[in-house]
Amino acid sequence: MGQGVVVRSLWQYCQTRELMLRRLDVPTLPAANIQKIALQARALVGKPYSRQHALLGLLGLAKHPRADELYCSTTAGLAIDSATGIDLSHHQPAWQPLYPATLAGHPWLKTIDVEWRPY
To answer: Which terminus of the chain has fewer CB atoms gathered within 10 Å of its CB, N or C?
Structure first.
């Protein structure tokens, strides 16, 4: 929570954490929206994470991500929603809150296989 939303190298991030890459898999989504998602995510850089939202999430009370209540993977959900209008929580209890585990099993996201090699 300290620095809020930051841009980090995936290689450095995955040194101490497990990592799964997923991509929005909506056939009718124009390819240009992928770039819009990245731009929306960059617009969140510097915004603080919310301790209150983290607590609400742990209690199972956090729902749709909001810019003033950023927490972990809700940042990804907010960027996707802002860029495309697609709400990953879609008012389904099984998809709320948008934790990494929720996104890992989300039916609208496709897993991307990658091979990591240090350069």
So the answer is: C
